[in-house]
User: Which sequence fits this backbone?
């Protein structure tokens, strides 16, 4: 069966279907030549489509069900992962995963959202919507990382924090606010990678770091496009216009100084070749981690503070103590 395609990828779907039909036929030299020709055509069609994606199309790519997840990156880039469970106050939130691992023989802490794969797992993971105990678990683990001088590597992929009544009753806003405050002064290197959806406070609650990296077709925004359209236009169908207005794409955010680097993806998105996508993340992570760990503690914390204080401000430089 050909892989799942998005609505705007109809030209890709047609070629994939042709390839799938040919693979069912007996093996011959002519068949193999035709498949090779279609593969080249597929690459060309993907390149043409993906070189000029609209913001809404990038939203769809960021949400692709086959997009590499935290668990995929753990499998490909890290060794000896040992998960940490529970916030020691209420429960273990399965939408946020934390644990210690080794990255190229260096002990690190991993923190990230998990959306789940099939329906059963998505329900178990609450579709990546973390509750307050998830953010408190993340902070508990990050304090352990600080105690043992282990860098923190964060993978962000969530539509938003869970907005249910029980989440509000247990103080999700307070939990996120505490994380924002404490991550700003956490005395250990922090690298944040927006790997899929970076939605609202649900993303920001674990996204304060020394370097904020973003995969090429990921998104990062104060609100999902559907929610923005419902509020501003009173019409959820205006999600395409909302996506454009929100400036949620990696190039927009790099230009605004919200992120520090764009991690390139394979043509057609990370879901088309997770191995190549992971290699690109690996290269960016290695470089950023080396830069941050080379700084003294005071220099690193001062730069982190200035980085976030300068966001959205014109003509004010907080590195001068303003």
Assistant:
């Amino acid at each position: 069966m050909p892989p799942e395609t998005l609505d705007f990828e109809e030209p890709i779907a047609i070629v994939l279907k042709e390839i799938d039909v040919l693979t069912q036929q007996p093996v011959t030299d002519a068949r193999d030549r035709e498949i090779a020709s279609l593969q080249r055509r597929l690459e060309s069609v993907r390149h043409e489509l993906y070189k000029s994606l609209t913001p809404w199309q990038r939203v769809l790519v960021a949400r692709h069900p086959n997009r590499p997840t935290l668990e995929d990156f753990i499998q490909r880039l890290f060794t000896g992962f040992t998960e940490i469970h529970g916030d020691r106050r209420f429960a273990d939130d399965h939408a946020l995963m934390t644990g210690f691992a080794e990255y190229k023989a260096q002990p690190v802490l991993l923190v990230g959202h998990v959306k789940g794969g099939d329906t059963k797992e998505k329900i178990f993971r609450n579709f990546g919507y973390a509750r307050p105990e998830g953010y408190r678990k993340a902070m508990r683990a990050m304090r352990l990382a600080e105690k043992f001088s282990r860098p923190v590597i964060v993978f962000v992929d969530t539509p938003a924090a869970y907005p249910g009544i029980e989440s509000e009753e247990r103080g999700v806003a307070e939990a996120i606010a505490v994380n924002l405050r404490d991550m700003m002064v956490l005395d250990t290197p922090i690298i944040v990678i927006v790997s899929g959806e970076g939605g609202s406070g649900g993303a920001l609650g674990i996204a304060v770091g020394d370097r904020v990296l973003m995969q090429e077709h990921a998104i990062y925004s104060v609100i999902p496009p559907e929610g923005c359209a419902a509020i501003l236009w009173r019409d959820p169908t205006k999600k395409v216009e909302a996506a454009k207005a929100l400036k949620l794409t990696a190039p927009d955010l790099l230009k605004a100084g919200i992120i520090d680097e764009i991690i390139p993806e394979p043509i057609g998105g990370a879901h088309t070749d997770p191995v190549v996508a992971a290699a690109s993340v690996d290269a960016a992570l290695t470089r950023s981690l080396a830069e941050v760990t080379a700084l003294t503690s005071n220099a690193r914390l001062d730069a982190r503070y200035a980085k976030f204080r300068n966001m959205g401000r014109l003509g004010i430089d907080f590195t001068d103590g303003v």
